[in-house]
Design brief:
Chain B: Its main location: membrane. The complex is a heterodimer. By secondary structure, chain A is of the alpha+beta class. Chain A has 42 helices and 37 strands. Chain B is built from ten helices and ten strands. Chain B starts with a helix and ends in a 6-residue tail after the last helix. The chains are: A alpha+beta, B alpha+beta. The interface between A and B is large, with 100 and 103 residues.
Amino acid sequence: MGSVESYFGRLCGKEQEKEEERLFRANDRPFNLSYHYADNAIKTSKYNLFSFLPLNLFEQFRRLANAYFLFLMALQVIPQISSLSWFTTAVPLILVLSITAVKDASDDINRHKSDKQVNNRMVKVLIDGELRNEKWLNVQVGDIIKLENNQFVTADLLLLSSSEPLNLVYVETAELDGETNLKVKQALTVTGDMGDSIDALAGFNGEVRCEPPNNRLDKFKGTLTLDGQTYSLDNDKVLLRGCTLRNTEWCFGVVIFGGPDTKLMQNSGKTTFKRTSIDHLMNVLVLCIFGFLASMCTVLAIGNGIWEVREGSVFTAFLPREQGADAALSSFLSFWSYVIILNTVVPISLYVSVEIIRLGNSFFIDWDRKMYYPKNDTPAQARTTTLNEELGQIKYIFSDKTGTLTQNIMTFNRCSINGKAYGELFDFSGQRVEITEKTARVDFSWNQLADPKFTFHDHSLLETVREGNPEAQAFFRLLALCHTVMPEEKKEGELYYQAQSPDEGALVTAARNFGFVFRSRTPETITAMEMGRTVTYELLAVLDFNNVRKRMSVIVRNPEGKLTLYCKGADTIIFERLHPSCNKLKEATIGHLNEYAGDGLRTLALAYKPLDDSYMDKWRQRHHEASTAMEGREERLDELYEEIEKDLLLLGATAVEDKLQDGVPQTIEQLAKADIKIWVLTGDKQETAENIGYSCNMLREEMREIFVVAANTAEGVKEELQNARRKMCPEAAEEPSVKKARAGLFWLQKTETVQDEKVDGDYGLVINGHSLAFALEKNLQLELLRTACMCQTVICCRVTPLQKAQVVQLVKKYKQAVTLAIGDGANDVSMIKAAHIGVGISGQEGMQAVLSSDYSFAQFRYLQRLLLVHGRWSYLRMCKFLQYFFYKNFTFTFVHFWYAFFCGFSAQTVYDEWFITLYNMVYTALPVLGMSIFDQDVNDRWSFQYPQLYTPGQLNQYFSKKAFVLCMMHSCYSSLILFFIPWAAMHDTVRDDGKDLADYQSFALLAQTCLLIVMNIQLCLDTYYWTAVNHFFIWGSLAAYFAITLTMYSNGMFLIFTSSFPFIGTARNSLNQPNVWLTIFLTSLLCILPVVASRFVFIQLRPTINDKVRQKVRKEALPAPAPRRPPARRISTRRSGYAFSHAQGYGDLVTSRRFLLKLRSRPPLFTQTDSPLALNEPQLYRTIAEDPEESQSP
Amino acid sequence: MVKEEQELANRPDNTAFTQQRLPAWQPMLSAGIVIPGFVLIGLAFIGIGVALFVTSRSIQVLELDYTGVGQNSPCYKCTYPNVSNCVCDLDFSIDSLFKGTVFFYYGLSNYFQNFRKYGVSKDDVQLSGDLTNFKSPSDTCSPYVYDSNNQPIVPCGSIANSMFNDTFQLFQKINGTKTLVPFDGKGIAWWTDYNIKYRNPSVTPLKNAFNSTVKPIFWSKPAYDLDISDPANNGFINQNFLVWMRRAALPNFRKLYGRIDEGVYAQGLPAGNYSLAIAYNYPVLSFDGRKKVVFSNVSWMGGKNEFLGIAYLVIGSLCILMSIVMLIVYAKFKFPEED
């Protein structure tokens, strides 16, 4: 719509050149208007009342098929050529055009409505020294406007002042980037001082120079000149249209960009249009058909030429030739006449029907209750309705981890304190008891501050803590102190934690429930409630987490004056720094850690160290020096940290469960059985990713080998990849076998396909972001692809959003396979857009992924239903539809071809023109739609039972060029029967009263009746699933044919429209003849019986998987329930490291005053819902990272 | 409860339709249906085939070509150029009684009534008696819309213009005397054509309707003179005209000329010698066409057509054969039951 706007803008002489820089003055409309900046009105609609018809028709005729039919209609107007009345093409074309036009119009009306609604929103604008209510569309660049709490931001604004301290405002950017967390913007002090003084604001005459309109949401550059001073402006001072003001009473801003120039509008618009492989195939086929049509017409034109020379030229006694007409001209004209007659090989209703089928199947996805998630009331949604059948052909799935495979909920699950493990339940005989929903929970009601959503099942731990066990108390004290969580206490006793990673939140909450409640912090202190006693610790230092250190520590002084360093971190790192006295404890803890790791839990080791004052003083001195040093600050700090974090005393270890979504391992197993390869692309660390890989059964202990590629140079990566490949497949050639082919329209597109290579045994591949960056380079990407495709499981960790997309594109390009990407966050958008099909997990935080996805639902496990049931059915239905549709039209058309040899190649139609008009649109439209919307080979339960049913789709087995050729041959056979049987039966016979029966009209009726009956029986044969609707459509259509035919051939119709219905009486006179019916019967059976016989024989000789399962369905009413295997307990030597998902800690922020100020001054960011459902869930922690993508970068 | 419902506002309806659980019949091509089905169809076909074949055999047909190609052909004399009002006698004999009503057809070969431009060359509105189209016939009649004097042609168009104009008289020769065997030319066209599709303008006398129009160029007399004796067989509703106007689907065709169902011939044509007097007017040799006459009686399945009977017999046998093949395949290769 932006382009339309600018198009009209150009027409009006505006915007002659591209804007280089934006310059405007606040409160100076005349000055600003001289630049012709766009005002704040938006226009997303395409048409208005007058432009609708021409523009929409123009759009529609840009589609090749429509243009073709327009061309045909033009041909039909030429009397020398016209072999069919104009209505045979016009009626279907007008029908198709008007259906599309109505749809477009209703879409556009909706856009008009929403435009109008948005443009007419009211906002307070400062005009002539007073605040006036104005409509949004009247706002101009340079206006100062006032926004109030919970209002939408009107345009892109430069923030001037706000009601909050420090000129802060809070905005929600959900509509813009999909993130639900609040963001903070801060005005310049110099403008902020104006406050809400109208006089000051009215007198404000700052001049802003800034970048021209663009679509980068995270960048803004500009300057503000005020009273000769120049201030630089950045993204922090800009409120973007699409945001909502939250927790801020009011704020003032000056408009920078309005309407179409806003970043919101610049971002919307061009969405790449995805097309399915069936679409591409269809285009190729239609092109082939055009070629075929041309050759048929050429043959007939040549035939006409020969006939003219041999017969026509002498038949002139009864049919004189026009002046100057010779065989060549006649042949040329008959070519075009046959183009008109045979046009039905390119069926106009094909595209419309395909869209209808896809729409129907999309509705079935929307309606599916088994993909509806009651917990947050989210149904599945088919956001794109044109990709359904591709869901049945997926070969590769690229999945995000956090929020997709996992719930992004961390639960404190087990712990090991001083060599003793807690968290598991055993019965009297010492057998482990499985913990279920019903298992009794530990009662935390003694603790006023406990989080009611926290659950723990092992009572002994609480008893130990309450008994006063010093190690246990120290353990939880550490958890309550050593972190960077922000507390919020809305009301007395109602604590909310804002944690940077959910792991941290889980640990602090665990401490809270076990009586060590972290309550508040200042930059210098931490206040905690320890077993009911308020204790304030002096916070001396935070030794923050980073990637290399893999640990964090705090140094605190307790009220008694004792100094302690508390440290938590990756077990391997902590164990290196332990005091030798802990060796025995270490052994015991390692045992527990192995157990936890085997269960796929994220583990941390906890340790502490008492410090003495004098050392601490010196250390702090050096710390201060280091942190203010100009050079080598980082290194010096690291050294200091390293020095103090040693000789630690081990306390124990925690195990946090990164909760998988329900049914993830089962889903992955099912998809693997369907021969779909799943690659996990995650921004997480290698350890966490591997962990999840194990817990969702993608990586298995019994795999032959799991290769880890983590080199830091291109050579290293290459070597590791090659080594892995040689190990898996030693005999494989060094060079990948690339099959080059051409595809697409006109075979212009070159494709390269890397062949699959067989490997025996299962392997896994884990590759990290650094290595992936090298591996995705041009010279290594094929190596990566080969190696990765040999492995059962591929996990890429620490990948950036861009890399995610690159991986998808790599597979797309060289595997020619259909890919699906599934994710939930903004970082998955690129891959969702890159893949053939993007799936968004809805109902989690953020809508960005969902907004750019093609399908969305709430739980990963619904993917198997989407693919194995809906996808498979859609593909099956589409293929059956295409096959039948082409068959039906070819057969219809070929009969004309044969008849040409008997009518002097004169382009005489075999059927009545009305039949030609109605054949596709009325007589055969609904039955085939009925089949292709309702058909199912086996029901959903059997589809799950036999995921192998999915594989034919991946191999394009149901409809391909080969199937198309077969379909043409079948049509050829049928049309021969359909023409020559009636011909032989009729050519020399008469009615039973001696009258004519071999006349043209009777023959036409006979041929068309045979055709329609054969088409219906063929459809019956193709229909696997006969619902009442199918019955109604098939028998209804047949009945409608006879009813319509009898009506059109009735006396009444002839008397009213004499020249339109010349077939009067034909039906009555010929359908009462026994030999007509005997001919119809013979023709139908002769067309159908060979199909039945060959299908039957093929089912016996070479049954497909579908045949086998269908056979089984007949025997057993319901599939046997899948055996429930108890989850096997694994003891693993593989251990996770510091399992936090974030890259850099929050230490700086925690100790900075500014951050706390702003936190205290507002209500919590996330209001808890009071719904009973929410109470059942563990508390959800959200990251408060400013930029979600930053944490994913390597 | 209310709250719960609100919570689940987006829950899709649980109907068989939305959940794709509509009760359905799921037939399969199983051996139990296909093989017996083929046997039954085969038997039925053979039965029908036998009936058709026997019936077709019982129908008697006598075809006589009278184009006059050969020099000893009786109508050879009429094929000379510039011969007009030529009458030739075609003698033939019938060995046995032609049972029942005998139908007399004329047939044309290599004649393209189904040529598109020929087929569209008529004006249905004019033929339904609309006088406006008498004055200005539809363009579809091209090239016979107006004559060289720009007078409208009625009936216009190639089909009407090329109306078959040979006439026949049949005589039975008994001991040298010729007895006329009358042709009944009434009721040889479709009821709908005669009563609905073609109508004379309601002008009496009919001749007046044709004022300031001309007869088709090839016609010897105007439409209102086709049968002066019987107004119900005159003009556009002349039965021979109607038969001709119902154009044939294929280039070899025959059209009903009359029935022999009067007097002594009501029971059929007795064996004996006959002579057919042909007024030979219609030129076909220029395009290598052939003219013939056909005597035939009919049965419940219409005229003689051996094809249907034979086809049914062959297909029926093939069905039986196929069912045996399928039985063998099924018994031998029946696909294994296990997964």
